[in-house]
Amino acid sequence: MEIHQSAVILLLVVCVSFSAHAQPPHILPRYQKFLNQHRDPDMSEQKCDSEMRKRGITGTGNGCKPVNTFIQANTNQIKAVCGGGGTPQGGNLFKSNQPFPVITCRLQSGERPPRCEYHKGKKSTRYIVLGCEKGWPVHYEEGIVDQSMHEL
């Protein structure tokens, strides 16, 4: 019987642990939007125009989105910036402790969707600054060039 009670206690501890780290439901849509707009581990410079269109992030009726950055990392690496893998910058902003490879896409032509066209992207390595809520990334603020890997 002791083994059974120990198993129940262990199960309760695991459940409490998972619920303590669970994502609050009101953050989920913002986190998913962030991932759609800014995460793609397989992004290439050639895919800017097609990915911006496919993901529906070219802009709004008010105008084309001038710049968008894709982080080439997995979700755990990006989420870590909002915790131990990042340094608080004030407010809800965190700067990554390590640089990330990114692809920056810039508007080439067009004033309003669906006529937004994007240049071939530019690959670089940057420290990323993210807006975080309760440990979850919800906003890409900026990228800061990693001077140790400065491109010529």
TrEMBL record:
Q: What is this protein called?
A: Ribonuclease A-domain domain-containing protein
Q: What is its main location?
A: secreted
Q: Which UniProt keywords apply?
A: Disulfide bond, Endonuclease, Hydrolase, Nuclease, Secreted, Signal
Q: Which GO terms describe its biological process?
A: angiogenesis; defense response to Gram-negative bacterium; defense response to Gram-positive bacterium
> Which is a Pfam family this sequence falls into?
RnaseA
Molecular function (GO) terms for this protein are:
endonuclease activity; hydrolase activity; nucleic acid binding; RNA nuclease activity
The yes or no answer to whether the keyword NADP is present is no
Where in the cell does this protein reside?
Answer: Secreted
InterPro entries given in the database record: RNaseA, RNaseA-like_dom_sf, RNaseA_AS, RNaseA_domain
Q: Which SMART domains match?
A: RNAse_Pc
Q: Does the keyword Nuclease apply?
A: yes
Family to which this protein belongs: Belongs to the pancreatic ribonuclease family.
> Organism source for this protein?
Phoxinus phoxinus (Eurasian minnow)
Q: Which residue positions does the secretion signal occupy? A: 1-22
- What is one cellular component GO term in this UniProt entry? extracellular region
Q: Where is the Ribonuclease A-domain domain?
A: 27-144
